[in-house]
Design a protein that fits this description.
By secondary structure, the protein is of the alpha/beta class. The chain contains ten helices and nine strands. It folds into two domains: about 190 residues, P-loop containing nucleotide triphosphate hydrolases (Rossmann fold); about 55 residues. The chain is globular.
């Protein structure tokens, strides 16, 4: 990695107030480290402590065609992602809803599908930023802004608790600020909460508001900055069994259909839930029992 040129030695005498202020500013805003090769792979993880991006050789994901019960969400998100890859206007997206319903799986699958048969120089890069690193989004954007490549930022399980004020930094990055979001970057986030904030945070904002409308606006102002809202909900038994059957066929798990159905229902009952995640966990268990490897 290559660092930006350091600040030139000062001509002011040591200890001069202006010199001390410049040193303090350098400590507060360390120089951005730019990865010289943002084309070497299609996925990266952001590490704010080093201001760098580490490449991911193989993304943990399932093919888009195996994600059942979210066809409408997949169609919308894929179209938005392809627009971005083509250099056309596209929206930030918030995928919200119940746990295990395929939100993060869909983002990773859509990234692969959008790249498809694109030439290497037209492929999108997926950049994961962890929830706790959201305050460093401006630094990450400073790195990505310098590249000719186009990026999808991915933040999984994005929620804000208690007195956490980092959501204000996210609001600024999404729409506000002087520089704004770079044209080569969009943000996809998943959350179990539609408005990203815990109920007590919303209630605190309501109590502090002078007018009721103020509280309502504050409640939705963060999620409103995502142009796409895609909801994910609990699935019915028919959809759950369709997901299981799709996985079993794709991975050539040889088991009688009636027996597969009965065992899948029993597995969901023991978990007290039906979801894409539960279906995947059942199929992994079944594949292990049958001595069958699952290669994605």
């Amino acid at each position: 990695m290559k660092k930006e040129p350091k600040r030139q030695p000062s001509t002011m005498p040591p200890g001069h107030p202006a010199e001390r202020m410049a040193d303090a500013l350098d400590r507060m805003a360390p120089p951005v480290v730019v990865d010289p090769d943002l084309w070497r792979t299609d996925a990266f993880v952001w590490h704010p402590e080093s201001q760098g991006l580490s490449p991911v050789a193989r993304v943990n994901r399932v093919p888009l065609k195996l994600l059942r019960g979210v066809e409408n969400q997949a169609r919308i998100l894929l179209a938005n992602t392809q627009h971005h890859a083509d250099g056309l206007p596209a929206n930030n997206a918030l995928l919200w809803g119940a746990r295990g319903t395929g939100k993060s799986s869909l983002i990773k699958a859509v990234h692969a599908a959008a790249n498809g048969k694109r030439p290497a120089k037209k492929c999108l890069a997926l950049v994961e930023i962890h929830r706790e690193d959201v305050p460093t989004l401006p630094q990450l954007l400073a790195v990505l802004r310098t590249s000719e490549r186009r990026f999808v930022l991915f933040c999984d399980d994005l929620t804000f608790e208690g007195q956490d004020a980092s959501y204000k930094a996210l609001k600024t990055v999404l729409e506000g600020g002087i520089e704004g979001r770079p044209n080569n970057v969009i943000l996809y986030a998943t959350s179990n909460r539609r408005h990203l904030m815990a109920r007590d945070m919303i209630e605190n904002e309501r109590a502090a508001a002078i007018h009721d409308t103020e509280a309502i606006e504050e409640k939705v102002s963060l999620s409103d900055r995502f142009g796409l809202w895609l909801g994910f909900h609990h699935i019915d038994q028919a959809t759950y069994l369709d997901i299981v059957a799709g996985y079993a066929a794709a991975f050539k798990l040889r088991i009688d259909g009636t027996k597969l159905r009965a065992r899948a229902i029993e597995w969901a009952a023991t978990r007290g839930d039906r979801s894409g995640r539960v279906a995947w966990q059942f199929v992994q268990d079944l594949a292990g029992e049958l001595g069958k490897r699952i290669d994605l």
